[in-house]
Write a structure and sequence with these properties.
Order of helices and strands: HHHHHHHHHHHHHHHHHHH
Number of helices: 19
Radius of gyration: 23 Å
Largest sheet: none
Oligomer: single chain
Structural class: mainly alpha
Helix content: over 70%
Distance between the termini: 34 Å
Strand content: under 5%
Shape: globular
Number of strands: 0
Length: 493
Protein backbone atom coordinates (compact mmCIF):
# COMPACT_ATOMS: atom_id res chain seq x y z
CA UNK A 1 0.00 0.00 0.00
CA UNK A 2 2.75 2.45 0.92
CA UNK A 3 4.45 2.00 -2.44
CA UNK A 4 1.25 2.87 -4.30
CA UNK A 5 0.65 5.85 -1.99
CA UNK A 6 4.12 7.17 -2.76
CA UNK A 7 3.56 6.58 -6.47
CA UNK A 8 0.30 8.55 -6.56
CA UNK A 9 1.80 11.31 -4.41
CA UNK A 10 4.87 11.60 -6.62
CA UNK A 11 2.72 11.72 -9.77
CA UNK A 12 0.54 14.44 -8.20
CA UNK A 13 3.62 16.53 -7.37
CA UNK A 14 5.15 15.91 -10.79
CA UNK A 15 2.00 17.01 -12.62
CA UNK A 16 1.82 20.18 -10.55
CA UNK A 17 5.48 20.97 -11.21
CA UNK A 18 4.99 20.42 -14.94
CA UNK A 19 1.95 22.68 -14.98
CA UNK A 20 3.96 25.44 -13.31
CA UNK A 21 6.90 24.80 -15.63
CA UNK A 22 4.65 25.19 -18.67
CA UNK A 23 3.19 28.44 -17.35
CA UNK A 24 6.62 29.93 -16.63
CA UNK A 25 8.41 28.43 -19.66
CA UNK A 26 10.88 26.68 -17.37
CA UNK A 27 11.91 23.11 -16.66
CA UNK A 28 10.38 21.01 -13.92
CA UNK A 29 13.77 20.87 -12.24
CA UNK A 30 13.96 24.65 -12.15
CA UNK A 31 10.49 24.87 -10.60
CA UNK A 32 11.43 22.22 -8.02
CA UNK A 33 14.62 24.13 -7.20
CA UNK A 34 12.62 27.35 -6.85
CA UNK A 35 10.15 25.60 -4.53
CA UNK A 36 13.00 24.33 -2.37
CA UNK A 37 14.45 27.85 -2.18
CA UNK A 38 11.05 29.19 -1.10
CA UNK A 39 10.86 26.59 1.68
CA UNK A 40 14.35 27.49 2.88
CA UNK A 41 13.48 31.17 2.78
CA UNK A 42 10.30 30.50 4.72
CA UNK A 43 12.26 28.64 7.38
CA UNK A 44 14.73 31.50 7.71
CA UNK A 45 11.87 34.01 7.86
CA UNK A 46 10.12 32.05 10.60
CA UNK A 47 13.25 31.77 12.70
CA UNK A 48 14.03 35.44 12.18
CA UNK A 49 10.50 36.41 13.19
CA UNK A 50 10.79 34.30 16.33
CA UNK A 51 14.18 35.82 17.19
CA UNK A 52 12.75 39.32 16.88
CA UNK A 53 9.57 38.57 18.82
CA UNK A 54 11.21 36.63 21.66
CA UNK A 55 13.48 38.52 24.02
CA UNK A 56 16.08 36.42 25.83
CA UNK A 57 15.85 36.25 29.60
CA UNK A 58 18.78 35.59 31.88
CA UNK A 59 16.59 34.73 34.86
CA UNK A 60 15.04 31.32 35.35
CA UNK A 61 11.37 30.50 35.32
CA UNK A 62 9.45 28.72 38.09
CA UNK A 63 8.13 25.28 37.11
CA UNK A 64 4.49 26.39 37.11
CA UNK A 65 5.18 29.32 34.78
CA UNK A 66 7.36 27.17 32.54
CA UNK A 67 4.56 24.64 32.11
CA UNK A 68 2.05 27.43 31.47
CA UNK A 69 4.22 29.01 28.77
CA UNK A 70 4.86 25.69 27.04
CA UNK A 71 1.15 24.82 27.12
CA UNK A 72 0.29 28.12 25.50
CA UNK A 73 3.02 27.73 22.86
CA UNK A 74 2.14 24.13 21.97
CA UNK A 75 -1.59 24.88 21.82
CA UNK A 76 -1.02 27.96 19.67
CA UNK A 77 1.00 25.83 17.25
CA UNK A 78 -1.84 23.29 17.17
CA UNK A 79 -4.46 25.95 16.41
CA UNK A 80 -2.30 27.40 13.64
CA UNK A 81 -1.87 23.99 12.03
CA UNK A 82 -5.57 23.18 12.21
CA UNK A 83 -6.62 26.54 10.77
CA UNK A 84 -4.18 26.09 7.89
CA UNK A 85 -5.47 22.62 7.04
CA UNK A 86 -9.09 23.86 7.18
CA UNK A 87 -8.29 26.60 4.68
CA UNK A 88 -6.58 24.09 2.40
CA UNK A 89 -9.37 21.52 2.78
CA UNK A 90 -12.08 24.02 1.89
CA UNK A 91 -10.20 24.86 -1.30
CA UNK A 92 -9.45 21.29 -2.41
CA UNK A 93 -11.19 20.25 -5.65
CA UNK A 94 -13.68 17.39 -5.10
CA UNK A 95 -12.60 15.68 -8.30
CA UNK A 96 -9.45 15.85 -10.41
CA UNK A 97 -8.37 14.51 -13.78
CA UNK A 98 -5.70 12.46 -12.00
CA UNK A 99 -8.40 10.78 -9.91
CA UNK A 100 -10.34 9.91 -13.06
CA UNK A 101 -7.19 8.41 -14.57
CA UNK A 102 -6.27 6.43 -11.46
CA UNK A 103 -9.80 5.00 -11.32
CA UNK A 104 -8.95 3.11 -14.50
CA UNK A 105 -5.87 1.54 -12.90
CA UNK A 106 -5.64 -1.30 -10.35
CA UNK A 107 -5.34 1.17 -7.47
CA UNK A 108 -7.74 1.32 -4.56
CA UNK A 109 -9.81 4.43 -3.99
CA UNK A 110 -8.22 5.04 -0.59
CA UNK A 111 -4.72 4.83 -2.04
CA UNK A 112 -5.60 7.19 -4.88
CA UNK A 113 -7.23 9.81 -2.67
CA UNK A 114 -4.66 9.66 0.12
CA UNK A 115 -1.80 9.80 -2.37
CA UNK A 116 -3.13 13.11 -3.65
CA UNK A 117 -3.69 14.45 -0.13
CA UNK A 118 -0.24 13.61 1.23
CA UNK A 119 1.63 16.43 -0.59
CA UNK A 120 -1.04 18.89 0.55
CA UNK A 121 -0.66 17.84 4.19
CA UNK A 122 3.14 17.96 3.89
CA UNK A 123 3.16 21.51 2.53
CA UNK A 124 0.50 22.60 5.02
CA UNK A 125 2.58 21.19 7.87
CA UNK A 126 5.66 23.00 6.56
CA UNK A 127 3.80 26.31 6.53
CA UNK A 128 2.40 25.62 9.99
CA UNK A 129 5.89 24.98 11.33
CA UNK A 130 7.13 28.24 9.83
CA UNK A 131 4.41 30.13 11.68
CA UNK A 132 5.14 28.09 14.82
CA UNK A 133 8.81 29.04 14.94
CA UNK A 134 8.09 31.07 18.07
CA UNK A 135 7.22 27.82 19.87
CA UNK A 136 10.60 26.35 18.96
CA UNK A 137 12.39 29.52 20.03
CA UNK A 138 10.55 29.58 23.36
CA UNK A 139 11.38 25.92 24.01
CA UNK A 140 15.06 26.63 23.39
CA UNK A 141 15.01 29.17 26.23
CA UNK A 142 13.02 27.11 28.69
CA UNK A 143 14.49 23.62 28.19
CA UNK A 144 17.82 21.86 28.24
CA UNK A 145 19.41 20.33 25.12
CA UNK A 146 17.78 16.89 25.44
CA UNK A 147 14.36 18.24 26.37
CA UNK A 148 14.60 20.83 23.59
CA UNK A 149 15.26 18.11 21.00
CA UNK A 150 12.25 16.19 22.30
CA UNK A 151 10.13 19.36 22.12
CA UNK A 152 11.08 19.94 18.48
CA UNK A 153 10.16 16.36 17.62
CA UNK A 154 6.84 16.71 19.44
CA UNK A 155 5.97 20.01 17.71
CA UNK A 156 6.61 18.48 14.29
CA UNK A 157 4.75 15.29 15.13
CA UNK A 158 1.78 17.12 16.63
CA UNK A 159 1.57 19.42 13.62
CA UNK A 160 1.40 16.49 11.18
CA UNK A 161 -0.92 14.42 13.37
CA UNK A 162 -3.41 17.20 14.09
CA UNK A 163 -3.51 18.24 10.45
CA UNK A 164 -4.23 14.67 9.38
CA UNK A 165 -6.92 14.43 12.06
CA UNK A 166 -8.44 17.77 11.09
CA UNK A 167 -8.48 16.83 7.41
CA UNK A 168 -10.04 13.45 8.25
CA UNK A 169 -12.82 15.05 10.29
CA UNK A 170 -13.41 17.56 7.53
CA UNK A 171 -13.73 14.86 4.87
CA UNK A 172 -16.02 12.75 7.08
CA UNK A 173 -18.28 15.71 7.89
CA UNK A 174 -18.44 16.79 4.27
CA UNK A 175 -19.31 13.28 3.13
CA UNK A 176 -21.97 12.94 5.84
CA UNK A 177 -23.59 16.25 4.98
CA UNK A 178 -23.70 15.42 1.28
CA UNK A 179 -24.81 11.81 1.44
CA UNK A 180 -27.13 11.82 4.47
CA UNK A 181 -28.51 15.34 4.57
CA UNK A 182 -28.35 15.92 0.78
CA UNK A 183 -26.60 19.25 1.21
CA UNK A 184 -24.95 20.56 -1.97
CA UNK A 185 -21.19 20.17 -2.28
CA UNK A 186 -20.29 23.83 -1.84
CA UNK A 187 -22.45 24.28 1.26
CA UNK A 188 -21.31 20.97 2.77
CA UNK A 189 -17.69 22.02 2.29
CA UNK A 190 -18.31 25.41 3.89
CA UNK A 191 -20.20 24.01 6.88
CA UNK A 192 -17.68 21.23 7.44
CA UNK A 193 -14.80 23.72 7.44
CA UNK A 194 -16.62 25.94 9.93
CA UNK A 195 -17.30 22.97 12.24
CA UNK A 196 -13.66 21.83 12.26
CA UNK A 197 -12.47 25.38 12.87
CA UNK A 198 -14.92 25.82 15.76
CA UNK A 199 -13.87 22.49 17.28
CA UNK A 200 -10.17 23.44 17.08
CA UNK A 201 -10.76 26.76 18.81
CA UNK A 202 -12.96 25.16 21.46
CA UNK A 203 -10.40 22.44 22.23
CA UNK A 204 -7.25 24.55 22.46
CA UNK A 205 -8.40 28.10 23.25
CA UNK A 206 -8.30 27.37 26.98
CA UNK A 207 -4.53 26.84 26.91
CA UNK A 208 -3.88 29.50 24.27
CA UNK A 209 -5.56 32.17 26.40
CA UNK A 210 -4.52 30.78 29.80
CA UNK A 211 -2.42 33.75 30.84
CA UNK A 212 -2.21 33.36 34.60
CA UNK A 213 -1.04 30.52 36.78
CA UNK A 214 -3.78 28.74 38.64
CA UNK A 215 -3.71 26.68 41.80
CA UNK A 216 -3.24 22.96 41.36
CA UNK A 217 -6.43 21.27 40.21
CA UNK A 218 -7.49 17.71 39.89
CA UNK A 219 -7.47 15.75 36.68
CA UNK A 220 -9.67 17.13 33.91
CA UNK A 221 -10.66 15.88 30.49
CA UNK A 222 -8.48 18.58 28.93
CA UNK A 223 -5.40 16.80 30.26
CA UNK A 224 -5.90 14.24 27.50
CA UNK A 225 -5.17 16.82 24.80
CA UNK A 226 -2.07 15.90 22.83
CA UNK A 227 -0.53 19.31 23.50
CA UNK A 228 -0.76 18.87 27.27
CA UNK A 229 0.58 15.34 27.04
CA UNK A 230 3.47 16.65 24.94
CA UNK A 231 4.31 19.31 27.53
CA UNK A 232 4.26 16.75 30.32
CA UNK A 233 6.45 14.47 28.23
CA UNK A 234 9.04 17.23 27.83
CA UNK A 235 9.00 18.34 31.46
CA UNK A 236 8.52 15.03 33.27
CA UNK A 237 9.41 12.31 30.78
CA UNK A 238 6.67 9.98 31.99
CA UNK A 239 6.22 6.85 29.90
CA UNK A 240 2.46 7.16 30.32
CA UNK A 241 2.51 10.61 28.75
CA UNK A 242 4.72 9.37 25.91
CA UNK A 243 2.25 6.54 25.29
CA UNK A 244 -0.59 9.06 25.22
CA UNK A 245 1.17 11.16 22.58
CA UNK A 246 1.93 8.10 20.46
CA UNK A 247 -1.70 6.99 20.80
CA UNK A 248 -2.82 10.39 19.47
CA UNK A 249 -0.47 10.10 16.53
CA UNK A 250 -1.62 6.56 15.76
CA UNK A 251 -5.30 7.56 16.00
CA UNK A 252 -4.67 10.47 13.60
CA UNK A 253 -3.01 8.16 11.10
CA UNK A 254 -5.83 5.61 11.34
CA UNK A 255 -8.48 8.30 10.87
CA UNK A 256 -6.57 9.66 7.86
CA UNK A 257 -6.43 6.20 6.28
CA UNK A 258 -10.12 5.66 7.02
CA UNK A 259 -11.09 9.02 5.51
CA UNK A 260 -9.38 8.01 2.29
CA UNK A 261 -11.99 5.29 1.82
CA UNK A 262 -14.84 7.80 1.71
CA UNK A 263 -16.27 8.71 -1.66
CA UNK A 264 -15.50 12.40 -2.10
CA UNK A 265 -16.93 12.67 -5.60
CA UNK A 266 -19.62 15.31 -5.88
CA UNK A 267 -22.64 14.55 -7.88
CA UNK A 268 -25.32 16.80 -9.29
CA UNK A 269 -25.13 19.53 -6.67
CA UNK A 270 -25.67 23.22 -7.12
CA UNK A 271 -23.26 25.96 -6.28
CA UNK A 272 -23.45 29.02 -4.06
CA UNK A 273 -25.95 31.48 -5.46
CA UNK A 274 -24.92 34.82 -3.97
CA UNK A 275 -25.87 37.95 -5.95
CA UNK A 276 -28.49 36.01 -7.91
CA UNK A 277 -30.73 38.28 -9.94
CA UNK A 278 -28.25 41.10 -10.31
CA UNK A 279 -28.05 42.73 -13.71
CA UNK A 280 -24.76 42.89 -15.53
CA UNK A 281 -23.57 46.47 -16.04
CA UNK A 282 -22.82 47.83 -19.47
CA UNK A 283 -19.32 48.57 -20.66
CA UNK A 284 -16.29 46.33 -21.02
CA UNK A 285 -14.59 47.29 -17.78
CA UNK A 286 -17.65 47.17 -15.51
CA UNK A 287 -18.93 43.93 -17.01
CA UNK A 288 -15.51 42.34 -16.47
CA UNK A 289 -15.54 43.52 -12.84
CA UNK A 290 -19.06 42.10 -12.38
CA UNK A 291 -18.08 38.68 -13.73
CA UNK A 292 -14.98 38.51 -11.54
CA UNK A 293 -17.03 39.61 -8.52
CA UNK A 294 -19.56 36.82 -9.05
CA UNK A 295 -16.74 34.28 -9.27
CA UNK A 296 -15.14 35.66 -6.10
CA UNK A 297 -18.22 35.56 -3.84
CA UNK A 298 -19.65 32.24 -5.04
CA UNK A 299 -16.95 30.18 -3.37
CA UNK A 300 -16.76 28.30 -0.06
CA UNK A 301 -13.68 30.29 0.91
CA UNK A 302 -15.60 33.57 0.76
CA UNK A 303 -18.54 32.19 2.73
CA UNK A 304 -16.29 30.72 5.44
CA UNK A 305 -14.41 34.02 5.71
CA UNK A 306 -17.65 35.96 6.03
CA UNK A 307 -19.02 33.59 8.67
CA UNK A 308 -15.76 33.79 10.64
CA UNK A 309 -15.89 37.57 10.90
CA UNK A 310 -18.20 37.75 13.91
CA UNK A 311 -16.40 35.25 16.17
CA UNK A 312 -13.03 36.77 15.25
CA UNK A 313 -14.17 40.27 16.22
CA UNK A 314 -15.70 39.00 19.45
CA UNK A 315 -12.49 37.10 20.21
CA UNK A 316 -10.44 40.27 19.70
CA UNK A 317 -12.79 42.14 22.02
CA UNK A 318 -12.36 39.49 24.69
CA UNK A 319 -8.59 39.58 24.35
CA UNK A 320 -8.61 43.36 24.76
CA UNK A 321 -10.23 42.94 28.19
CA UNK A 322 -7.12 41.05 29.39
CA UNK A 323 -4.35 43.39 30.47
CA UNK A 324 -1.52 41.15 29.27
CA UNK A 325 -3.09 40.79 25.81
CA UNK A 326 -4.14 44.39 25.18
CA UNK A 327 -1.30 45.08 22.73
CA UNK A 328 -1.82 41.80 20.87
CA UNK A 329 -5.58 42.45 20.71
CA UNK A 330 -4.99 45.87 19.16
CA UNK A 331 -2.70 44.38 16.50
CA UNK A 332 -5.22 41.60 15.80
CA UNK A 333 -8.06 44.10 15.48
CA UNK A 334 -6.13 46.24 13.01
CA UNK A 335 -5.35 43.18 10.89
CA UNK A 336 -8.77 41.50 10.83
CA UNK A 337 -10.29 43.78 8.14
CA UNK A 338 -7.50 42.70 5.77
CA UNK A 339 -8.24 38.96 6.06
CA UNK A 340 -10.97 38.82 3.34
CA UNK A 341 -8.62 40.41 0.83
CA UNK A 342 -6.29 37.40 1.00
CA UNK A 343 -8.90 35.51 -1.06
CA UNK A 344 -7.39 37.24 -4.08
CA UNK A 345 -4.86 34.39 -4.18
CA UNK A 346 -7.50 32.36 -6.06
CA UNK A 347 -8.24 35.10 -8.61
CA UNK A 348 -5.85 34.25 -11.42
CA UNK A 349 -6.13 30.47 -11.30
CA UNK A 350 -9.93 30.35 -11.47
CA UNK A 351 -10.13 32.10 -14.83
CA UNK A 352 -6.71 31.69 -16.45
CA UNK A 353 -8.08 29.09 -18.85
CA UNK A 354 -10.59 31.51 -20.34
CA UNK A 355 -8.79 34.85 -20.40
CA UNK A 356 -7.67 34.39 -23.97
CA UNK A 357 -11.34 34.82 -24.98
CA UNK A 358 -11.42 38.37 -23.64
CA UNK A 359 -8.23 39.25 -25.48
CA UNK A 360 -10.09 39.10 -28.78
CA UNK A 361 -12.75 41.48 -27.43
CA UNK A 362 -10.52 43.94 -25.61
CA UNK A 363 -7.55 43.72 -27.94
CA UNK A 364 -5.10 43.19 -25.08
CA UNK A 365 -3.81 40.25 -23.08
CA UNK A 366 -3.89 42.34 -19.91
CA UNK A 367 -7.58 43.32 -20.14
CA UNK A 368 -8.39 41.43 -16.92
CA UNK A 369 -5.66 42.87 -14.67
CA UNK A 370 -7.48 45.94 -13.34
CA UNK A 371 -11.02 44.41 -13.28
CA UNK A 372 -9.77 41.44 -11.25
CA UNK A 373 -8.09 43.67 -8.70
CA UNK A 374 -11.20 45.86 -8.39
CA UNK A 375 -13.53 42.85 -8.10
CA UNK A 376 -11.58 41.20 -5.32
CA UNK A 377 -11.22 44.54 -3.56
CA UNK A 378 -15.00 44.93 -3.63
CA UNK A 379 -15.52 41.33 -2.45
CA UNK A 380 -13.09 41.82 0.43
CA UNK A 381 -14.55 45.22 1.28
CA UNK A 382 -18.02 43.68 1.50
CA UNK A 383 -16.81 41.75 4.57
CA UNK A 384 -14.18 44.18 5.84
CA UNK A 385 -16.68 47.06 6.18
CA UNK A 386 -18.77 45.08 8.65
CA UNK A 387 -15.66 43.90 10.50
CA UNK A 388 -14.35 47.45 10.85
CA UNK A 389 -17.78 48.79 11.86
CA UNK A 390 -18.05 46.10 14.54
CA UNK A 391 -14.59 46.93 15.83
CA UNK A 392 -15.48 50.63 15.96
CA UNK A 393 -18.64 49.87 17.92
CA UNK A 394 -16.69 47.73 20.39
CA UNK A 395 -13.92 50.29 20.77
CA UNK A 396 -11.20 48.08 19.31
CA UNK A 397 -10.12 50.63 16.70
CA UNK A 398 -10.52 54.33 16.15
CA UNK A 399 -11.73 56.20 13.12
CA UNK A 400 -8.28 57.73 12.79
CA UNK A 401 -6.87 54.27 12.08
CA UNK A 402 -8.83 54.04 8.83
CA UNK A 403 -5.90 55.13 6.66
CA UNK A 404 -3.53 52.48 8.00
CA UNK A 405 -6.24 49.81 7.80
CA UNK A 406 -6.93 50.61 4.14
CA UNK A 407 -3.20 50.54 3.37
CA UNK A 408 -2.90 47.11 4.98
CA UNK A 409 -5.91 45.74 3.09
CA UNK A 410 -4.46 46.90 -0.22
CA UNK A 411 -1.12 45.30 0.66
CA UNK A 412 -2.78 41.96 1.50
CA UNK A 413 -4.87 42.15 -1.68
CA UNK A 414 -1.80 42.66 -3.86
CA UNK A 415 0.17 40.00 -1.98
CA UNK A 416 -2.64 37.53 -2.64
CA UNK A 417 -2.74 38.41 -6.32
CA UNK A 418 1.01 37.90 -6.63
CA UNK A 419 0.95 34.67 -4.63
CA UNK A 420 -1.81 33.36 -6.88
CA UNK A 421 0.21 34.31 -9.96
CA UNK A 422 3.37 32.57 -8.76
CA UNK A 423 1.45 29.37 -7.88
CA UNK A 424 -1.92 29.57 -9.66
CA UNK A 425 -4.90 27.83 -8.09
CA UNK A 426 -6.09 24.90 -10.17
CA UNK A 427 -9.22 22.80 -9.86
CA UNK A 428 -7.16 19.87 -11.13
CA UNK A 429 -4.33 20.19 -8.60
CA UNK A 430 -4.96 20.04 -4.89
CA UNK A 431 -1.34 20.90 -4.23
CA UNK A 432 -1.83 24.27 -5.91
CA UNK A 433 -4.09 25.32 -3.03
CA UNK A 434 -1.35 24.78 -0.47
CA UNK A 435 1.28 26.43 -2.65
CA UNK A 436 -0.81 29.56 -3.26
CA UNK A 437 -1.58 29.97 0.42
CA UNK A 438 2.02 29.27 1.38
CA UNK A 439 3.42 31.94 -0.95
CA UNK A 440 0.73 34.48 -0.05
CA UNK A 441 1.42 34.00 3.64
CA UNK A 442 5.14 34.48 3.12
CA UNK A 443 4.60 37.64 1.10
CA UNK A 444 2.28 39.09 3.74
CA UNK A 445 4.64 38.24 6.62
CA UNK A 446 7.75 39.54 4.88
CA UNK A 447 6.10 42.77 3.68
CA UNK A 448 4.52 43.39 7.10
CA UNK A 449 7.91 43.00 8.78
CA UNK A 450 9.42 45.47 6.30
CA UNK A 451 6.62 48.01 6.82
CA UNK A 452 6.89 47.67 10.61
CA UNK A 453 10.61 48.32 10.38
CA UNK A 454 10.01 51.34 8.15
CA UNK A 455 7.51 52.79 10.61
CA UNK A 456 9.73 52.24 13.62
CA UNK A 457 12.74 53.73 11.82
CA UNK A 458 10.88 56.79 10.47
CA UNK A 459 7.28 57.93 10.98
CA UNK A 460 3.81 56.49 10.45
CA UNK A 461 3.18 58.42 7.19
CA UNK A 462 6.46 57.12 5.78
CA UNK A 463 5.42 53.63 6.84
CA UNK A 464 2.13 53.97 4.98
CA UNK A 465 4.00 55.17 1.89
CA UNK A 466 6.31 52.15 2.15
CA UNK A 467 3.24 49.92 2.44
CA UNK A 468 1.77 51.47 -0.67
CA UNK A 469 5.04 51.11 -2.57
CA UNK A 470 5.27 47.41 -1.73
CA UNK A 471 1.63 46.94 -2.78
CA UNK A 472 2.29 48.63 -6.13
CA UNK A 473 5.33 46.41 -6.68
CA UNK A 474 3.31 43.27 -5.90
CA UNK A 475 0.52 44.36 -8.25
CA UNK A 476 2.93 45.13 -11.08
CA UNK A 477 4.58 41.71 -10.72
CA UNK A 478 1.18 40.04 -10.65
CA UNK A 479 0.12 41.80 -13.85
CA UNK A 480 3.38 40.96 -15.59
CA UNK A 481 3.36 37.29 -14.61
CA UNK A 482 -0.35 36.78 -15.15
CA UNK A 483 -0.39 38.34 -18.60
CA UNK A 484 2.32 35.96 -19.74
CA UNK A 485 0.39 32.98 -18.39
CA UNK A 486 -2.83 33.98 -20.11
CA UNK A 487 -1.17 33.76 -23.53
CA UNK A 488 -0.58 30.04 -22.96
CA UNK A 489 -3.97 29.32 -21.39
CA UNK A 490 -5.48 27.95 -24.61
CA UNK A 491 -3.40 24.81 -24.17
CA UNK A 492 -5.78 23.75 -21.36
CA UNK A 493 -8.72 23.41 -23.75
Amino acid sequence: MMSRLRAVASVSVLLWLRDLAALFHASSRAVALGSAMVLLGATALGLGLAAVALKPSSSGYPPELKELMLRTAFSTSAVIGLLIIVVLAVSLPPRTALQSLVDLLPVRRAEAQLGQLLPVVALGAAFGLVLSALTIALASQLLGPVAFGAACLLVVGNMAALQMLGLSVFLANSCLLRRRLRIPQQYATTLSGALVMAAALAAFSGDVLNLATRPAQGWTLGDLLVTRLAVKTVLQGSLLDVAGVLLWWAASLVSFLAAGRLNQQSGGTGGIRLLTGTTAPTGRFLSAVWIQLLIAVRTPQFVVTALSAVPLVLGARWLSSIDMMAVAAAQLASGLPAVPFALSMYALGRTVKYRWLGASVHGSWSWWVAPTGVAYFLAGAGVAVFVYAGELALGLVELGDLGSVIARTVLVLCAGLLGGALAPYSEEQGLSVAASGFLTGLLVIASTMFVSWARSATTDPIGILAEGAVAVLFFALYALIGSGQARDAARYL
